[in-house]
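Troubleshooting entry. Yesterday's outputs looked truncated, so today I'm pasting the complete records for two proteins to confirm everything comes through intact. If either block looks cut off, that's the bug. Protein one:
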Amino acid sequence: MTNPYIIFKEEFIQGVRELEPSTTYILKTLTQRAAKRWKEMFEAEKAPYILSANEAKAKRPPKEKRKTAVKLGELNKKLTINQRKAVERLGFGSLLNVQCNMLPRDFIWKLVEHFNPKTRTLEFGRLRTYEITTADVARALGLKLGGVPIPTNCEDDHVKHIESLFLEKGEKMTRGLTVKMMDHVFEKKTSGTKFKTAYVLYALCCFLCPTTKDEAGPKLFPGVMDLDAIPHYA
């Protein structure tokens, strides 16, 4: 983390919860207490957190241009009719019309501030807590929600399958499947297994569960081994 206040806030909240384990606090209350304490602190007290933030910033690699939902929208515009039909058969038809609207920065920060990742809830006071469920996400994205758990345990056969689809004979995958590799597939305008596998992995790593790099990691490979099973995944 490169923000000294964020470093302090997490340490403060963790400290309160450790000192008062029997007390249940909503995240907003702890955040307000942390903000109040930060404002009251002298510069000398803030110095260690500022130093930690600067050290983290110095170690951070150069920011790369990442693929986002905007890129997914751009890809969708280039798909042929047959490719769009193939995507619809996968159960991803709603993603063909995905649009990215700009939201106020303050609104986004407010949501982040009130979101508790451990409980997957938005907390707006003790009596206004909203759980974000898988069904909510599926409904918002227009995706069908099946009942079969998505496989994530990547085995050697899964990697070999992806290598056989996207790499030249004899080549080995050293990391995940890069977006650049998938872009080459889309340019060929085909709509078979290779295209469908690439589209699902592209949608996953760029939009549905974006990664820190422009690539689909091995953890995503098991989910595309059986393309016919994708509409049934939860």
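Protein two, checking that the full record survives here as well:
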Amino acid sequence: MTAAIDGRAGIGKLLRRYIRWRVGAFWYLLVFVGIPLLLVLVPMLMAGSISALLSGLPLYPITYIGVFFLGGPFLEEPGWRGFALPRLQQRLGPLRGSLLLGVLWGFWHLPLFFIPGYNGAGSGFVGISTAMLTFIVATSALSIVFAWVSNRTGGSLFLVMLLHASINSSGSLAPAFANTLVNQIMTYIILFVFTLIIIIATRGRLSYDRYLRETEPSLPDSPALDRLI
């Protein structure tokens, strides 16, 4: 699609985003340390369930690599954050654009919810639809986080693929706890709080002005706040 719409120049720009890795140590710490802390370790501590703490750590690197290449990040992100996000942000703005992308991202996983147990999916219409709607709410929140990371790192596909892999594989750090209802509730609460902080801190812009300034140098500088967030 990129080739059909933007031609060779668009393909070249997309490929350069694959290898945009010089984005600062903070973003690697967020991906490899912050996300597992937020999605697994903090919920476990809040729930008082620390018996399985880091039980999956020895196999985590293997799990992470497998998830990166086979579990969605490497194959999905060129479409979601590579192709769709820049266009949706341009047309709808960063917040509405990322929310719409989050809904589409959630519906993309619809066939998986016919597998009993997938992300809490039960049997029958109610069991499937309830789990699916909950998942779409989560992907909508995550889409805002992804948009912020993408914008803040100059559209780095490499970073958002690492982020996607970290989210998908973090549960393997404590597999006995990851699939419990308590963990899901705690994780959603933490995710929504984190997303709300990003929205408030960036005034709903999700660092989009910074992204434009870095990718379109001819544009005037954005407000000082966006240089920091």
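Both blocks look complete. Sanity check on protein two: The two ends are 32 Å apart (CA to CA).
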